[in-house]
UniProtKB/TrEMBL annotation:
PANTHER family: GTP PYROPHOSPHOKINASE YJBM (PTHR47837). Residues 49-162 form the RelA/SpoT domain. Pfam families: RelA_SpoT. CDD domains: NT_Rel-Spo_like. This is RelA/SpoT domain-containing protein. GO terms for biological process: guanosine tetraphosphate metabolic process. It comes from Candidatus Defluviibacterium haderslevense.
Length: 321
């Protein structure tokens, strides 16, 4: 609620503060991105922010349950939305934001508070204050974001808004999305346990394991010298795994046998090509290669070296048959 006589005053304040509001919005988004990058949280969508529009502000006057005298009393004058991949990331990010912003005012979840009904989506809302303005930061998972967008798309803000004949599929979708968050959380938890167990095993203990993304990475890290490791390797493990399986390499034992047979020759090939490239570099040619690696005899990454090895390995097998 707002006194009609206050509306022109608040509207003028709103227009006068536009530059400050947008600068503040950009500043907070920058801070949040830095926090997220530093803590390596899984954020799947770019942070979205907005300053409340004039039309939205006008509608806000009718929704307010208390009288205001300034736009600085509006909790969501500036709104920011962060979409995380996992519930665990939401919880971690909530804690980080509360610790970072000492001007933290309040935190609530509309669904948990029962502000509307079971139709309401889960989303954590944090109100902070900066430069005397209030900012609402919404943090939700990708599944929660999907539900919120569906609700907004079809203008169903409450259960009572939904026609009875279409409620069942809609609520079923809601349940599936909520289950997806829980199942993904369980998957990540189980995978972390699996990786810890895998890290504690030596190569002989996993020889009979099937070749998958995790056992492939571990085997290469153990069997191939670290100097060949490249930042781009992680993006290529899946394609290498597929190529190995297509050639009948399905277990760690088979991969180890291939590496033991071919690694020495592959390293010699890497050294030979590196020497040739180094000659070109000394002549002033821009080869595009990392000179330090080339001087160290590293022409191939893990993935490149593996491809060199299996090409040679299967050529020898074909020649001998």
């Amino acid at each position: 609620m707002i006194n009609d006589s206050q509306i022109p005053i608040i509207q003028k304040e709103y227009f006068d503060e536009q530059t400050n509001l947008h600068e503040l919005l950009d500043s907070i988004i920058k801070e949040l991105n830095q926090l997220i990058d530093y803590n390596r949280y899984n954020i799947e969508i770019d942070i979205h922010g907005r300053v409340k529009s004039q039309d939205s502000l006008s509608r806000k006057y009718e929704e307010l349950l208390f009288e205001i005298n300034t736009i600085k009393q509006i909790d969501d004058l500036i709104g920011i939305r962060i979409v995380c991949l996992l519930l665990s990331d939401v919880e971690k990010l909530l804690k980080t934001i509360k610790n970072y912003y000492t001007d933290f005012k309040k935190h609530y979840n509309p669904a948990e508070k029962g502000l509307k009904d079971r139709f309401n989506y889960n989303s954590n809302h944090i109100i902070i204050e900066k430069n005397r303005f209030r900012i609402e930061i919404q943090i939700r998972t990708l599944s929660q974001h999907t539900w919120a967008q569906v609700s907004r798309k079809f203008n169903y803000k409450n259960e009572i808004d939904v026609p009875d004949e279409i409620k069942r599929p809609l609520f079923r979708a809601s349940a599936h999305l909520e289950s997806a968050d829980l199942d993904l959380g369980k998957f990540v938890e189980d995978r972390e346990k699996h990786l810890i167990h895998l890290s504690e095993q030596n190569i002989n203990e996993i020889l009979d394991s099937s070749l998958n993304f995790d056992t492939l990475r571990k085997t290469l890290a153990i069997k191939i010298p670290a100097k060949y490791k490249s930042d781009s390797d992680d993006l290529l493990y899946f394609s290498l795994l597929r190529e190995l399986r297509q050639r009948g390499i399905n277990t760690v034992r088979e991969l180890v046998s291939l590496i033991d047979s071919e690694l020495n020759d592959a390293e010699m090939m890497s050294q030979k090509i590196s020497s040739e490239i180094l000659i070109r570099i000394k002549k002033g040619e821009n080869t595009g290669f990392d000179e330090d690696k080339i001087r160290n005899g590293v022409r191939f990454s893990y993935i490149g070296l593996m491809r060199e090895m299996y090409d040679s390995y299967f050529k020898k097998k074909a020649d001998s048959s």
